Amino acid sequence: MHMPSLRQAVFAATLTSVALVPGAAFAETLSIWARASSSNAAQHMVDLWNASHDDKVELTTIPDNQMVTKLATSVQSGDVPDLISFDLIFMPDFMKAGFLTDLTDELAADPNQAKVAQAFRDLASYEGRLYGTGFTPDVSILLYNKDVFAKAGLDPESPPRTIGQLQEYATTIKEKVPDAYGYYFSGSCGGCNIFTQAPMMWASGATLLPTSGEAPAMEGPGVAEVLTMLKEMWEGGIIPESAEADTGANFFSAFEAGNIGMVGSGGFAISALKANHPDMNFGIAPLPGLNEGQASSFVGGDVIAIPKGAKNADLALQFIQWQLTDEAQLEGLAKNLILPSRTDLADNKYFQAEPRYIVTAEAVGIGQTPYAFHFNDMVNADQSPWLTMIQTAVFDGDVEGAIEEARRAMQDIAAD
Fold first, then answer.
1. Which segments in the chain show pLDDT lower than 70?
2. Nearest alpha-carbon partner for 141 in 356, 290, 313, 350
3. Can you tell me the distance from the alpha carbon of 375 to that of 410, in angstroms, rounded to the nearest whole number?
4. pLDDT of residue 152
5. Radius of gyration of the chain from Cα atoms?
6. Among candidates 55, 3, 43, which has minimal Cα distance to 317?
7. Selection from 133, 99, 88 nearest residue 370 by Cα
8. Cα–Cα distance for residue pair 161/289, rounded to 1 Å
9. Closest C-alpha to 211, from 93, 42, 57, 70
10. How does strand 299-305 pair with strand 56-62?
11. CA-CA-CA-CA dihedral for 402, 404, 410, 416, to nearest 10
């Protein structure tokens, strides 16, 4: 009788043991693309998943300015990742182009989806269907220097609650604190200003970007008022002259100098200031509207979705649903001082030691994100209608003319 060799016996035993381990023989590797500016947050979520699942996730970082083209090309060729994390402003264009998988029924049955910030849920919807959800948020806030406030005789614990108060406080700072300025913004950066000035407009009730050639654009309370506030502060020397030409290079660093009273900024400012300027006494507040009780933010960051044609779509859906759980939101995001996309977790154990994170996380729940096709053309381009409007209104002094021209140009873009 032929006896099996030792090598054959070991090989057979190995096959048997693998077959007896549930899932071991069928473990998959999911692929996820994330843009470079959010890859750190995405990696925390991937690592947490991989530590507790047989199926693994492999992250590929894509340069921010290549994500749109790379996804479009991959969908057309049929060679797509299983998951994609990208700047949420591109969601309307991607849904309209048919790049993403419909997740309506699956997410509607998930109780955690109802707790995701409304801005994410709104922006991930197209023609009544849902194509993604929140993943790694960022949000705009009002950043202010408490020491500068105190020197000006202002209460450091009472940031402005209306745009009128913001202008009043900024004026007081300029008048009473030598070499200080009351406010700063990057005057040649469209993206910076949609992030930080626009929320004061829509907090007041304005509608900004149109979704079609006939839809409202730059209308309602707050548009003229915010632009007029900026114009008057510019004319009064309350904003430094360097703001006019700033393309965003000094969006954050201007505040770090210590002589700026207030600036619109993002949630990233907390960790950056604590690391680089540990002695700076700064506060965080919502961006105000015209009236007390009106406040908002720009909800930015990344959504997560499944590209059309993904090979492991079922498992990708499991990852999306898992990342909305308490475990993922708290241990993957909040533990690493990253904002959760679920508003019910804004006040959590990891933020208790630094209440400024709680204020910032709460801003995710009150914020909006403009729903528009061709967002880049309307806002981010060098000569976009949005940026041209700000420059014409603030630096040239023609508020009404700037609004009218922006409205016309935006509606022309939306009509394409």
1. 1-25
2. 356
3. 10
4. 98
5. 24
6. 55
7. 88
8. 8
9. 93
10. unpaired
11. -140
pLDDT at 15: 38
| Inter-axis angle of helices 223-235 and 399-415, nearest 10 | 130
Spatial CA neighbour of 129 closest among 109, 103, 111, 106 = 103
SS3 59: strand
Residues 6+ apart with CB under 8 A from 279: none
The DSSP symbol for 42 reads: H
Q: Decide: helix, strand or coil at residue 184.
A: strand
Class of domain 27-131+300-366: alpha beta
Tally of residues, the chain: 416
- Residue whose C-alpha is closest to residue 223's, from 395, 412, 394: 394
Give dist(CA 248, CA 242) in Å, integer. 11
Pinpoint the alpha helices (H) of 124-262: 146-151, 163-176, 190-196, 198-203, 223-235, 253-256
Cα–Cα distance for residue pair 266/286, rounded to 1 Å: 11
Consecutive H or E run containing 21: none
C-alpha to C-alpha distance for 168 and 174, rounded to whole angstroms: 10
> 20-61: per-residue pLDDT in tens?
444 445 789 999 999 999 999 999 999 999 999 999 999 999
As annotated, the residues of the chain forming the CATH 3.40.190.10 domain(s) are: 27-131+300-366, 140-298+372-415
Q: How far is CA 180 from CA 175, 242, 243, 292, 313, in A?
A: 9, 13, 14, 27, 55
The CA-atom distances, in angstroms, between 308 and each of 28, 40, 93, 120 are: 19, 25, 14, 20
CATH fold for the domain made of 140-298+372-415: D-Maltodextrin-Binding Protein; domain 2 (3.40.190)
